[in-house]
Amino acid sequence: MEKIKIVIVGIGNCASSLIQGIESYRHKNAEEAVGLMHWDIGGYKPGDVEVVAAFDIDERKVGKDIAEAIFALPNCTAVFQKDVPLTNIMVSMGRVLDGLSSHMKDYPKECTFVLSKEKESTKEEIIRILRQSGAEMLLNYLPVGSEEATRFYAECALEAGLGFINNMPVFIASNPEFADRFIKKNLPLIGDDIKAQLGATITHRVLTELFKKRGVKLERTYQLNTGGNTDFLNMLNHTRLASKKESKTEAVQSVTAQRLDPENIHIGPSDYVAWQKDNKVCFLRMEGKLFGGVPMNLELRLSVEDSPNSAGIVIDAVRCCKLALNRGKGGILYSPSSFFMKHPPRQYPDEKAYQLTEEFIKGERDN
Q1: Using one digit for the tens of pLDDT, what is the confidence trace for 142-168?
Q2: CB of 13 closer than 8 Å to CB of 231
Q3: pLDDT band (50, 70, 90) for residue 17
Q4: Is the pTM for the entire model greater than 0.85?
């Protein structure tokens, strides 16, 4: 099979896990491949993905080979594939815009970004790199709250003729104006805000659906998360959290039997604990009433390595985007978006989203 050529914006922990995974699975067969939802999607295996360009703003990554940059500080995710061969693809200096929260300069360098002294790339330079790379799609891994920067790179993808996978909680696929532009350009769009392979949001959704199916009235719930990577450090600035909280909250509200009043549902990042590194800990509580109005409650603690959890979904999103390109289908990919993302343009129960995505992969659905 031909390679699926991708561009990554933001060479952080999530990109590190994805690139490690591509290399790791390249040397495995279907029986050896652990931790995948799909080994084969339309003939494409995980190792058929190739990064052909990348952008970042950290001086420890800009100008470095991608294979080196993914292990540079402040990245702190698990290293499960130590040997990633050099690619001769260097990380280019991107645009800062609102991609860097001002409070992060107050933390030690090993925990936060160190802004590169290189001149920022112009929009024209970025579009030229995208075109010359031969890329087919752009993956957005910018920090939470990067509203302006995400829109900027979505614009670049549109002008360069690339599909767009929006892994972050800035609304692109959920924005009718942007969605319409990808439709008119016949470019596939998957978004918004990646739903981890087995993370806090998918677990919360499954339990919420279980309450509904078993006739338990959900009355109030919270989801509190802690972590020690740059994502959690960035989110200490609560002014950057509006779209993140909306995305995570709506993911759960959309599967409740009856929407909860705002004061009875709290879902969102909670705090930064440096020594946790890329380990994310979720504390989840659900309170409800059983038969006869008898009260019950459920408490759960979930601990996961955050970034590989994301990569387990993105590796499928990339291949679904490629199928759309091969089929000449542009615009929002509603089925994959509903299964892979927290805030898709159309929300479905996870069982239905899974079914629709399987139909899309088999070619039984256009989007």
Answers
A1: 999 999 999 999 999 999 999 999 999
A2: yes
A3: very high
A4: yes
